[in-house]
Specification:
The complex is a heterodimer. Helices cover 61% and strands 8% of the residues of chain A. Chain A is an alpha+beta fold. In chain A, the strands form four sheets. In chain A, strands 9, 10, 11, 12 and 13 form a five-stranded antiparallel beta sheet that branches. In chain A, helix 10 packs antiparallel against helix 14. In chain A, 46% of the residues are buried. Helices cover 28% and strands 40% of the residues of chain B. Chain B has six helices and ten strands. In chain B, strand 6 and strand 7 form a beta hairpin. Chain B starts with 8 loop residues before the first strand and ends with a helix. The chains are: A alpha+beta, B alpha+beta. At the A-B interface, helix 3 and helix 5 of A face strand 4, strand 5 and helix 1 of B.
Chain lengths: 791, 163
């Protein structure tokens, strides 16, 4: 094949990948849903977290603060912003304190106020009550607020509508200035917005945050003012943007660095392209397998883990490139390389098979992705690359500097007991260094900057927004039983609020009492003749006309005939969002949630909950226990994987001694890296674990290649060249990641970079083949076992 | 809804230039404090109620016209209203038409009646509903003397002195 045809082939390959990439971007959707990533729940808390909630009621709330202008201007902005967002389908609840909540009650439900409002629980609707209320209404009419109330009075002389609207306001509302909420200082207008997108959906949250900013910009126009958005969704957006920015610059420097490295190593323009094709193909193949097998249920973290793990396949073409020189056909040199490469790939793939039986979807996906990707990259290197590379490049074995390095390495000792001592010290550090070993809090990996957190706590306090960590749950056979059970909790909760253990609470029954309560209120309403009599008596001698309250009589009659309001009757009203978020219907059971605001005494709330048949759910604890579970599954799978790996390598190399020399560097490296991380007080996360697996995979390949570096000095020089290029590439990529300010990237970067360094040095010292003297491949090295040679 | 227009009496006070207090003394006690574009309504034994002046045009008009009149600042008045003056120094009236369309949708006009430097009555005509009259100074005293029989409309226009 001519050089032009080879380039055309490589470009055609690239074009195919781009097409496949376009298809993937259409059909692959990542999920941020933790359920896709974590193992099946076991404890009731875990089950509730995973199956029912997925997240707490507070995590979809965004807290808005408008500042930087006069209060009156801010109030107008707040009003326009709330109007715009209320009409936006991306938002459920939008509250800024305006409208007194009256708009929450649709016209058709207004007669239900007599079933929903607690206002008449204490006193019956009789002549005494009406007389008292009507006298108050007269004062209202003469007051400056008269004009506001006048339309309401004929149907509602006791102002039940207002009482209900007030009861439906957030349990502990901020102060109201100019009709909208303000902070205590009166400097910032506040609002609460609930997104429809779940809190764990970064795309949905970003979309919501952008929609709010756009609506705010429209409301502000050219005027002054600033908008602050806080809450889990806003943080996810902020962190996502930061990660993308850092990954962007790291990726750019990586690309330039890798390009330069490959150009220096091979002095060929086509090598960087050819070197990237197997990795890109591997990633695509892995993603295609995921799409075909798991549909769209792939968690973003699984993908992140997967791409970290397949970093090892970048080395496959490099080994091949370094072996190729004039006088030997590419097909022959790749055949010579294949047994060693295949041993590494097969051993690693067989090890990953154990993940398939871990019982965790995320790990199964990881295994499928990694196995498919590694096999693809190996096959690309074996079957496609030989047709595309320059068959007669510069022979790297002719480099005098490489030869000098090789001579120096030859003189290095082969350590034995010193390695044992090193291993013992490392194990001692791992075992006895004080401090927690594991970090289970996933959110610690993507920490929110401290000032943002402080500001969030401040706004949360001002707005009385619910706690994102703790929530009370009430389980029952159906929604009505759940509503009744949560109603029974109210006296205890009110007592806790009065004691200061808690600032506020919210539950579905606050908006929609149970059937039982509604029936009792309906029962207490007077019949039409009795009510007319009472009203006539109350109106006798009052300045109101005798027929002024006819609509009131009609509404009470309607309420007496109404059947209790059910959750499904609220569909399409602003109340539906509040009730749905707090009342979850499962299969054959229902869960009522009680969100808690300003929680100070966790133990007291827990006791009260237990006494009332409810449960205080610590979502942080539940999710951490799931992460621990996930890790123990990985560790279990890894133990099995390690055994399989040893067996595979042993069988492939047909010698316990050779297998020992190949496996020792990666085992020792793992221990050393762990010891270094522990010594620096790093609490290990899943990301560290995955990085250690990658480092071990790289180490296995280095050792395999060093151990079987070929029979002649030149072959050994070429292998040395390949492993140096491989480890420099990996070191470059992961050292840059280690410089990142984002803990996940730093954890992966530092662990892998350290692992590569250790693996390279130890493979060189332990696994390297005894030096060959001849420049030409003639006699096999004396103590090397017969290498496999496929036909 | 009422058989007859409602009558309450009390006092207006201006503790400082930015504040207006409307105090009802009979037939019950009620205090409304207006400042910073907000009204706070307080009654014995009840929690305060707050609302924006934008929702109570009667009060908004009162606040601006009071302030402007006391300060003798016709320009301030003209920035909110189209002003139409009629009558003589001894018996004048000022008709104020709101310029702000939002206010105009709720408030038809305000007519101030006075004699010399005394403001006697404010007539507020909402877009819908009945005219409200606030008698002040001499007119208010005349109304109190006349008791139930007082012709509030006539007192407001100053008919008692003219006739």
């Amino acid at each position: 094949m001519s050089a032009r045809a080879r380039l055309a082939g490589a470009l055609a390959w690239l074009a195919l990948l781009l097409l496949l990439g376009a298809w993937l971007s259409q059909s692959l959707s990542f999920s941020g849903d933790l359920r896709r990533f974590l193992p099946d729940p076991r404890t009731p808390e875990q089950r509730l977290l995973i199956e029912e909630l997925g997240e707490g009621p507070g995590s979809r709330l965004l807290l808005l603060a408008l500042g930087g202008a006069d209060p009156q201007v801010l109030a107008a902005q707040s009003q326009m912003l709330a109007d715009a967002l209320a009409g936006d389908p991306r938002f459920g609840l939008v509250t800024n304190g305006a409208g007194g909540g009256l708009d929450a009650i649709p016209e058709r439900l207004r007669p239900y106020r007599y079933l929903l409002s607690p206002g008449l629980d204490a006193r019956p609707l009789d002549a005494d009550l009406l007389r008292e209320q009507i006298a108050l209404r007269l004062q209202d009419l003469a007051s400056p607020a008269g004009e506001l109330l006048e339309p309401l009075l004929p149907s509602d002389p006791t102002l039940e509508t207002l009482r209900l609207a007030e009861a439906w306001l957030p349990a502990r509302a901020p102060q109201t200035l100019h009709e909208v909420w303000f902070d205590r200082a009166g400097a910032q207008a506040l609002a609460l917005v609930e997104t429809r997108a779940p809190g764990f959906d970064p795309d949905g949250q970003r979309d919501a945050v952008q929609a709010i900013r756009a609506a705010y910009d429209a409301a502000r126009g050219d005027g002054p003012g600033t908008l602050e958005i806080s809450g889990p969704g806003a943080f996810a957006d902020e962190i996502g943007a930061r990660t993308a920015r850092e990954a962007g610059w790291i990726g750019t420097i990586d690309s330039i660095g890798l390009l330069l490295l490959l150009l220096v190593a091979y002095r060929s323009w086509t090598i960087p392209l050819l070197g990237a094709l197997p990795l890109a193909t591997a990633g695509m193949a892995g993603l295609v397998a995921l799409v075909l097998l798991f549909g769209d249920g792939v968690h973003g973290i699984t993908i992140a883990f997967g791409f970290t793990l397949i970093g090892v396949v970048q080395d496959y073409p490099i080994h091949f490139f370094s072996q190729q020189r004039a006088g030997i056909s590419p097909w022959r040199s790749v055949r010579a390389l294949w047994p060693t490469l295949a041993t590494g790939v097969a051993a690693t793939c067989i090890a990953y098979l154990t993940f398939l039986f871990s019982g965790v979807d995320g790990l199964r996906q990881l295994a499928v992705f990694t196995i498919v990707a590694m096999a693809t990259a190996a096959l690309c290197t074996r079957l496609l690359l030989p047709g595309l590379i320059d068959p007669a490049p510069r022979d790297v074995a002719r480099s005098p500097r490489l030869l000098a390095l090789w001579r120096w390495i030859e003189r290095l000792p082969r350590p034995r007991w010193s390695l044992l001592a090193l291993a013992l010290v490392a194990l001692a550090v791992i075992a006895w260094r004080p401090g927690p070993f594991w970090q289970n809090d996933l959110s610690r990996l993507t920490p929110v900057p401290a000032p943002l957190l402080e500001r969030d706590a401040q706004l949360r306090d001002e707005l009385g927004a619910p706690d994102v960590r703790y929530v009370l749950t009430v389980q029952a056979a159906d929604t009505q039983a759940a509503l009744r059970a949560s109603e029974r909790l109210r006296p205890a909760l009110d007592a806790l609020v009065a004691r200061g253990a808690l600032d506020s609470y919210d539950m579905a029954a606050r908006y929609l009492p149970s059937d039982a309560v509604q029936r009792a209120r309906r029962q207490a309403l007077p019949g039409a003749p009795a009510l007319r009599q009472a009203l006539d008596a109350a109106l006798a001698g009052s300045p109101f006309r005798a027929d002024a309250f006819e609509p009131f009589l009609e509404d009470v009659a309607a309420a007496r005939a109404a059947s209790p309001l059910r959750p499904q009757d609220l569909a399409g009203t602003p109340l539906a969002a509040s009730v749905e978020g707090l009342l979850l219907e499962g299969d054959g059971h229902a869960t009522a949630l009680v969100s808690l605001g300003g929680l100070r005494d966790v133990a007291a709330v827990e006791r009260a909950a237990a006494a009332g048949g409810a449960r205080l759910l610590d979502m942080k604890q539940a999710s951490e226990s799931l992460v621990a579970e996930y890790r123990s599954r990985i560790l279990g799978a890894l133990a099995a994987a390690a055994l399989l790996l040893v067996a595979t390598v042993w069988i492939a190399l047909r010698s316990a001694r050779r297998a020992w020399r190949v496996l020792l560097p990666m085992a020792l490296t793992t221990v050393l890296v762990l010891a270094v991380l522990r010594a620096f007080g790093v609490e290990l996360t899943l990301f560290h674990l995955v990085s250690l697996i990658l480092a071990a995979g790289l180490g296995l390949d280095y050792a395999l290649f060093f151990e079987h570096a070929g029979d002649s000095r030149d072959d050994q020089l070429r292998t040395l060249h390949a492993v140096i290029v491989c480890s420099l590439m990996t070191l470059l990529v992961f050292s840059l990641l280690a410089l990142s300010s984002i803990p996940v990237l730093r954890a992966i970067g530092s662990t892998v970079a350290l692992g590569v360094l250790c693996n390279f040095v130890l493979s060189l010292l332990v696994a390297r083949a005894p030096g060959g003297d001849a420049a030409d491949p003639v006699a096999p090295a004396p103590d090397a076992a017969t290498p496999e040679r496929p036909a | 809804m009422l058989k007859a227009p409602l009558r309450v009496s009390g006092e207006y006070r201006r503790p400082d230039a930015a504040t207006l207090v409307r105090e009802v003394r009979a037939p019950y006690l009620e205090t409304t404090t207006i400042r910073d574009g907000e009204a706070v309504l307080a009654r014995d034994g009840k929690p305060e109620r707050r609302f924006a002046l934008s929702r109570a045009p009667e009060l908004a008009a009162l606040q601006t016209s009071f302030g402007a009149l006391l300060a003798g600042d016709i320009e301030a008045l003209r920035s909110h209203y189209t002003v139409d003056a009629q009558g003589s120094a001894a018996d004048w009236s000022l008709r104020l038409l709101p310029r702000d369309p939002r206010l105009a949708s709720r408030l038809q006009d305000i007519v101030l009646h006075g004699t010399g430097d005394e403001l006697r009555c404010i007539e507020t005509r909402p877009a819908k509903g009945q005219v409200q009259r606030t008698l002040m100074a001499g007119a208010a005293q005349a109304a109190l003397r006349a008791g139930e029989r007082a012709d509030i409309a006539a007192l407001c226009r100053g008919d008692d002195r003219a006739g």
